[in-house]
Amino acid sequence: MNGASASTHPEGVRYAPGLFAFTSLVLLFVLYQLVGGGLTLLAVGSAITEDNVMLARTATVLAQFLFLLVPTLWLVRRQHGSWSAALPMRMPSVTELVLAVLGMAALLQAAEGYLYFQGKIPVPAAIEPFVEEMKRMIEATYRTLIEARSFPELLFVLFVAAVTPSVCEEAMFRGLIQKNAVLATSPVKGFVITGVVFGAYHLNPFQLLPLAGLGIYFGYLQHRSRSLIVPMTVHLMNNALSVAAAYAYGFDTSDMPSLLKGGAEEASDLTVFATTVLFLAAFAVILRAYRSVTEPRPEGNAA
Q: Does residue 142 sit in helix, strand or coil?
């Protein structure tokens, strides 16, 4: 990235925002996934087990703060001159937060319906063993990381899996990356692009579309609220609910949506489809209500 005068780029940023966003993504990917992941691999080994899971969790926290948050803060200062330019922390109203969390809940239920039908898509026989093994490995690693066997362990897991990513990932994606994507394109394109990248960044092909949808939603919340506090809160609640559910009910790998489990008979495809449509409609209503209580100021170019 070559330096440029303040008048060359929108809002007087130092570098071309599109190139800066892409370069930042590559840099942070290398730092977090390769450097942080490599150090974790050296410390923990190739497999996360009950014997080394606490070390793996600690390494995960350190990697997020050292290789995501700290470089993000430096990049924001380098590009924008101040943290507030890309990391706004306006205190939202209670109504905003409640509607944002309700929207997340409806979107998650709709996503579970999508995953149910995705699981019914046939996989070519030639690659089915590979796909199933990859899915098993991802689920086993995730399960070991978030399952807690005591209340004190639950509190630590909540810090690892909910508090840490809600701060570090939101500062990176909804702060640094979205701000520059918006300056390079438009507000809507900016948060959509950032959301898709957020989904891909998690390196879970089986949940790519739901994660991208969640990322776009987080970006929309930041766009409307002009505050990272809203997506941070919703991100924290999303992850915390997953951890709490695993602690209370056990880790469930079935594709059936959570609200339809436990019945005397397994829900039919039609029931799952109808429920998914219902939650999508509820999400649309909540999104409209959220839009009505937020008044975004101009940012970047018009959408």
A: helix
**pTM for the model:** 0.90
Do 238 and 104 touch, CB atoms closer than 8 A? yes
Instruction: Express each pLDDT in 175-229 by its tens digit.
Output: 999 999 999 999 999 999 999 999 999 989 999 999 999 999 999 999 999 999 9
Cross-strand bridge partners of residue 89 = 227
> DSSP string of 238-269?
HHHHHHHHHHHH-----SS-GGGTT-SSPPPH
How many angstroms separate the Cα of 55 from the Cα of each of 78, 133, 268?
33, 25, 42
Q: Which amino acid is at 235?
A: H
The H-assigned helical ranges of 30-118 are: 37-44, 53-64, 70-80, 94-118
Tens of pLDDT, residue by residue over 229-277, are 999 999 999 999 999 988 988 877 778 888 888 766 788 999 999 999 9
Question: What single letter denotes the amino acid at residue 38?
Answer: G
Average pLDDT, the chain: 90
Residue tagged 């390079």 (tokens)? 184
d(CA 137, CA 253): 12
Nearest CA-CA partner of 72 in 81, 61, 83, 62? 83
